[in-house]
Amino acid sequence: MAFGFVSGGLLFLCAVTCALLDFVNTLQQSSKLPQVPIVVECKTQSLFISVDIPSLGSEPRFEAVDATGAYPITESYGPQCGYTYSVQSLLSRAVLRASYFSCHTDNQNDEVFTFMFRVFIMDQSGKESFFNVSKTCSVPPFSPREVTCEENYMEVSVRTDLPCPTAGSIKEDFSAAYGVAQSSAIETWQVMLQQEGQQSAVMSTEDAATLGYFIMVTPGRLVFRTSFGQPYASVKMVNNVAVEVIQATVFFRQNWMVVMVDLVAACSLDEGSFDGYRLHWRTPAVMTPLVVGPSELRSEYIGMGVDGEVVDEQAATDRGYSVTVSDETVDSSIPYAAEGGIRKSFVMDNVYNELYMVQLTYQQTFVDQHGVVTKHNVVRQMATPPIPRPPFSVNQTTLEERVFQVYLGNIPFDVELVSVELNGQEISVLTAAQMGYSITRVSEGNNTFAYIIRVPFEDQFVVKQYISEGYFEYSLEIKWTLNIMPQMEAYYHYSSVSTFIIDALPPVFDSMCADNGISFMKDHQQYDYLWDIAIGSYTLNPQLASERGYILTNDSTTLILDVPLFTIGYIYEDITLQQFYGTFELLTKNAKTLEIEQTSSKRCLFQTTELLVCSTDGVMTVVSDITKAVPSADPARTTLLDTSCRPQETDEARVLFSFGLNTCGTRFQVDQQYVTYENEIIFHELYSTDTRPVITRDAAYRVTVRCIYPVRGIESLFVDRKFSADTPGIGQIKDPVKVPPQMLKPMQPQKQTAMKPSSQSAAARKPADYARVGQWTPPLDEYAQWSLGPNGGF
């Protein structure tokens, strides 16, 4: 920068600014409160305004306001007047930066600046509203020369009270411009644009403005501003860095004096780069286009920061910022995700991507040989390209544990696993934990995590496929659903794991109903030794079959088990005088763990003759043919000990009673091992007209029925009167007896009573292995022979 004078004296340059205080106060009083988040800050070189874009709304627009009216800040108007407007769509915000020397800004002595803007917001319905933004900034004194490189324009301002340069410091181009200025200077301001290798062009400031060059005067400075890529701009390589240079000389002739101001702006065109770890931006160590004549600029200070503010050395170190100065260039770098930048994550094509953006603020101070300071200010928006962070999965399955273990890695810190889909069955993480699945999150470092899931081979959702004899494939397809927090943007990852192991399926029985029982059959397989066949808690073997009356045939190829009706192990249901259902079940157990792996059950329909069933829930069901003792007896004229308990069904010969063991006058007897419940089916030859039995001199007949249960298998026997047994009881039927008339007494409904212990109880009379074998016929007593009911065993 230099001033040239034709003769003695000094032309005082000034600009008259409009008084806006009254107008600003009026606008401030009428401003509406913003309906969206907004940030307004005074930075070192500019005013910063950030406005969040409403969801589903359009981009906000700005108008600069002064006493003369409102001026829309458009793409073309912004660089003219010192405004930089940008929309950061990924962050859903719009940013406006306004130079302190921007148009429509009230400037008080280049120290206090007052801004007024109107911000318009359009909602999703198309309705537009606005609010006013005002801000007053007090800034420290500017350097004699300030060169600012914004994103969309270059600006240079110089103080108008600098001393005249010495003859030796005037550069050649400026000397050449002097002759042009002296011959063409008129009473108005003029601009001479110079381009290396081209003829200089002299024009009025109005004509210069039409070409995109704007000049304004403040109380103490001359400001020149232009956007990038204008005519007369040149691009030079300075120390292997592309630099755009604009050379302008402003001159004015007044009487006998010509004032010339050399204005030059030079900005690095480096767009920044990303090496995978850091963002870098380069500029020449010395911006030689700013050098005047043979003098040299000496760099005295270099600083960097973000968002319009240079940070101190300690803060830069703490954040990982770095400035590397060589003989030729200065490299400013910021590490990925460092404080001060903005990290944005999003889903693109079902892949998690992240973007790191930072608004680099660079400042360098030069001093020439006269001690005149030039401050070079740069604002550079830099961003990484979208960086995909695809998850990866690792199969960590261990065959010994028979558990699938899948590792899902490279999960960023702002991502959360919300659900997993196991072979098509989706389960939330919370539900999976409640179901017993193990899902853990572990740190990988570098702000990434991993999830580990464990699913047993035997899990219900694992697919098991038979390949060949004894050879199976276990497979699991996992769909991981991941959400970016807090926007809850979902993406998915698929893992597929499988393993082949030697395994075998439990044997499968074919079953068939017969008239007098159920038959089970299976072919022998190579891996039969891996399982035990059991009936209840007892393993099926020849001894058990013999003791219980099963017919077991086992040759080299086939195993056949015929289970006669009324042998131990049947469950009887839906009993009527005509028919009932009998169910028999075989259990296949793992020979090592004894866990049940498969059940083979068969339910068959049988014809009813006579039976006695003692159920686990305390119900005795008996079907008896009373005509065997008294051919002329009427089955409908029978009762239990409680004469109000009548048969549920009868036919010409048989009766069906089903009653609770704690009802119908049932008696019980308890010893150390067994509980015996006993009732009687009573029938008489004569009845009164009200159908109640009447005792006559004729003999009566009785059938005694018993259910015997082991004490250890009965729950809550005498406390809450609720009966529950682990296994069905033993049923016994005592052959009908004729009671002598002298022993008959009038019968009344009875409450349950305890039987008087005899000298030899039923439990005492049975062999020691009764509970295990389940076959025992008691000896004759003084009345009759006992016979075993269909549930004759535990």
UniProtKB/TrEMBL annotation:
Protein species of origin: Cirrhinus molitorella
Statement: the UniProt record of this protein carries the keyword Signal: yes
InterPro entries according to UniProt: Ig-like_ZP, ZP-N, ZP_dom
Protein's name according to its UniProt entry: ZP domain-containing protein
Domain ZP: 613-794
Signal sequence annotation: 1-19
Keyword Signal: yes
Region (Disordered): 748-771
Amino acid composition bias (Polar residues), ranges on this chain: 753-762
Protein keywords: Signal
